[in-house]
Amino acid sequence: MIERLFRLIKPGTRQQMVCFHHAGGSAEYFLPWKTDLPPDTALYAIQLPGHGGRINESLLHNLHQMADVIAQSYVYLPVRDTFFFGHSMGAALAFEVALRLQKAGRGITTLYVSGRLPPHKNTDTDFYRQSDVSILNKITQLGGSTLDYQQPELKDLLLPIFRADFTAIETYQRQCTELLNCSVMACVGEQDTEVSVRQMSEWCQVTKGAFRLQVFPGGHFYLNHAQKRLLAFINQSVAAQQSSKECKECKEYHDEI
Length: 257
Fold this sequence. Notes:
By secondary structure, the chain is of the alpha/beta class. The protein has helices spanning 2-5, 63-73, 89-103, 132-142, 152-170, 197-201, 227-256; strands at 6-10, 15-20, 41-46, 81-87, 110-114, 183-189, 211-216.
């Protein structure tokens, strides 16, 4: 179960990043990332039931249920500094999992959220209720893939996944007002039509920790074209936090002696 849910894309011994895919996506979306992360950083990607290599499993239609499943299985991952990255639906899901882990005493170090309204802002769309054509047109408009979703084989395979994920994210409601203790880094494409730079800045309201907003060229799927820039930003901020942590631990050690 743990190997199916947390796909290990790249091993590492010091710290780990866990990535959460967008609606209709899969863990395989993050395969190219392994070449741009430091050697000591492990990379995991969430593979939800019914997605990717789990295509024959039953889909989930509720984001809180998704978060519960992930948080319950997270105990089997190594205990080390952990960073979450979630894009679009994955941002909301990563936030909910981070909250659950914090309550369980395994809070993460940093949450990277991308291309998604903050959890206290509800979407006013209902594509999950609309026709197959409307859903496919929306997916095509977002530009996340070059696939032709009108091909009958792809359409039959992917439409149930799109509809399930749209149901999960469009019916999502934040259930508590608890704040995260970890840092939150918000990333957005400057031409994103799904969420504005100003709206992304409101992610600052979900944490007691540090917050930073980083804007990249491009639209909703800016990360398809700005992967190296995005991962350079992530690597730089992770390294800065590790350095700060080591300095603090060194100071505490010298204070004790």
